[in-house]
């Protein structure tokens, strides 16, 4: 097993085999788009043909879980550690943390990040965290920094290339600019190996027309803050899927499809004013909440050795990505170190003997969301595919109570379920105790 602790690792990796033979890795993470939005998962509200095709060609996971908000998920996926160990505040990643980009760069990978940053405004932050090249929104500038105080990510965006501000004023659409940048990076590094991390702008609010919309305005300087017309969300999900299709085509055009893993996931659930249908059930977006609607996210993977059309019901969370990338790249890390995740490579190749019993989630509610959670500083839970236990003792059968309206009482639990709950209690105490020290 690969082992890692962000605050102990010095950056030295032991390569197994030649780095040039290692597969390329692309990580696509959509923004504010829950599990229910994907057709392959049973969603019927939106068109996602390219993502659905990934599921047809690769493996679809039914039980992947994120944190319920943007920055916490970004910190966790990049460092392989639960937020209880290294999360400090919204829109920040501590400078001392080690990321999957550091590890893959040390293994000989060219590394690139393009999309949404939201992890600190220091100009060299992406390079500091292991990325050779970057084209980012919400890096050195916020999202309302233009004179008209409109959002700057979509129409004629404000981006930063390797920390240097760039302006676009000729009708460009931010997601297209970013995918063009990724395509150029792939072409320049197609001899490989390379890592592309694409934390998408889409389909996060503001909900706006896109270049395929009848009312697209190429002269717009961005939508006003609070533009949340859910009618536009359909088009934004379609454009999300289109960007995924463009990335796949870039890989195919470069002749790299047989040696590239592509991961598609999302950072948290959809915004609360979106209502979607999945498997005949209506789901209201739960971003910011610890329910399934806030934390249950899609995960679909294609790549070498993955059989077509596989469906996996193992537990996965965002700490699992870093060790998976390490194993894909073919190197091991100091066995005296530890990390919170488990590599998924065995599952991707059809081995079901590496299942996790539980996952853990610790969430510090951002200040701007605390009005929805009065008196709560942070929250945590442990869960498996069916049952979920919170730090306050609330215990839910999520399969039969997705909105978590009825906490199970002791007389509703048989002895086996009580023993499982006790193991969950121990795991919460183990991780929560770190923050209390």
Describe this structure in words.
- This protein is an alpha/beta fold and 437 residues long.
- The protein contains eleven helices and 18 strands.
- Helix 6 runs parallel beside helix 7.
- It has a ten-stranded mixed sheet, sandwiched between helices. The protein has a four-stranded antiparallel sheet with strand order 15-16-17-18, with helices on one face. Strands 1-14 form a two-stranded antiparallel ribbon.
- The N terminus is likely disordered.
- It has two domains: 335 residues, Alkaline Phosphatase, subunit A, CATH 3.40.720; 74 residues, no CATH class.
CATH architecture of the largest domain: 3-Layer(aba) Sandwich
CATH topology tier name of the largest domain:
Alkaline Phosphatase, subunit A
- Major β-sheet, in short? 10 strands, mixed
Radius of gyration: 21 Å
Global structural class? alpha/beta
Beta-strand segment tally: 18
Morphology: globular
Helix content bin:
25-40%
What name goes with the CATH superfamily of the largest domain? Alkaline Phosphatase, subunit A
Low-confidence runs:
1-20
How many separate helices? 11
Number of domains: 2
Please render the helix and strand layout as text.
Elements: E1 14-15, E2 24-30, H1 49-57, E3 59-65, H2 70-79, H3 83-86, H4 100-106, E4 110-116, H5 125-128, E5 133-137, E6 158-161, E7 164-167, H6 174-188, E8 194-199, H7 231-253, E9 260-266, E10 275-278, E11 281-284, H8 292-295, E12 296-302, E13 310-317, H9 321-329, E14 331-332, H10 345-348, E15 359-364, E16 378-383, E17 387-390, E18 395-397, H11 415-436
Helix pairs in contact: 6-7
């Amino acid at each position: 097993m690969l082992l890692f602790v962000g605050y102990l690792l010095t950056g030295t990796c032991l390569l197994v085999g030649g780095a040039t033979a290692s597969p390329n890795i692309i990580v696509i993470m959509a923004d504010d788009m829950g599990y229910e939005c994907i057709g392959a998962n049973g969603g019927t509200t939106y068109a996602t043909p390219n993502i659905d095709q990934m599921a047809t060609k690769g493996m679809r996971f039914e039980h992947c879980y994120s944190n319920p908000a943007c920055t916490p998920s970004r910190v966790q996926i990049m460092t392989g550690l639960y937020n209880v160990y290294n999360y400090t505040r919204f829109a920040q990643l501590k400078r001392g943390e080690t990321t999957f980009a550091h590890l893959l760069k040390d293994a000989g990978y060219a590394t690139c990040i393009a999309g949404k940053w939201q992890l600190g405004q220091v100009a060299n932050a992406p390079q500091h965290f292991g990325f050779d090249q970057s084209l980012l929104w919400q890096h050195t500038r916020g999202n309302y920094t233009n004179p008209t105080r409109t959002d700057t990510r979509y129409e004629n965006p404000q981006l930063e290339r390797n920390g240097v501000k760039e302006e676009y004023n000729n009708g460009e659409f931010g997601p297209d600019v970013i995918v063009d940048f990724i395509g150029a990076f792939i072409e320049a590094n197609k001899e490989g190996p390379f890592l592309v991390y694409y934390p998408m702008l889409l389909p996060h609010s503001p909900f706006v027309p896109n270049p395929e919309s009848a009312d697209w305005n190429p002269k717009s300087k961005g939508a006003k803050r609070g533009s949340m017309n859910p009618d536009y969300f359909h088009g934004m999900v379609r454009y999300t899927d289109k960007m995924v299709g463009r990335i796949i085509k870039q890989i195919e055009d470069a002749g790299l499809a047989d040696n590239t893993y592509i991961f598609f996931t999302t950072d948290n659930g959809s915004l609360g004013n979106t209502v979607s249908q999945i498997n005949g059930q209506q789901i209201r977006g739960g971003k910011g909440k610890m329910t399934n609607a806030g934390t249950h996210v899609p995960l679909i993977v294609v790549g070498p050795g993955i059989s077509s059309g596989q469906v996996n019901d193992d537990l996965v969370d965002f700490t699992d990505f870093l060790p998976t990338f390490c194993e894909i790249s073919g190197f091991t890390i100091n066995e005296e170190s530890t990390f919170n995740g488990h590599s998924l490579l065995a599952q991707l190749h059809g081995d079901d003997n590496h299942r996790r019993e539980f996952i853990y989630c610790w969430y510090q509610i951002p200040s701007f969301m605390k009005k929805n959670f009065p008196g709560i500083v942070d929250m945590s839970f442990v869960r498996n595919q069916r049952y979920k236990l919170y730090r306050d003792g609330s215990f839910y059968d999520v399969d039969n109570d997705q909105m978590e309206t009825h906490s199970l009482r002791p007389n509703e639990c048989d002895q086996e379920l009580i023993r499982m709950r006790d193991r969950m209690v121990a795991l919460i105490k183990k991780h929560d105790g770190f923050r209390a020290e």
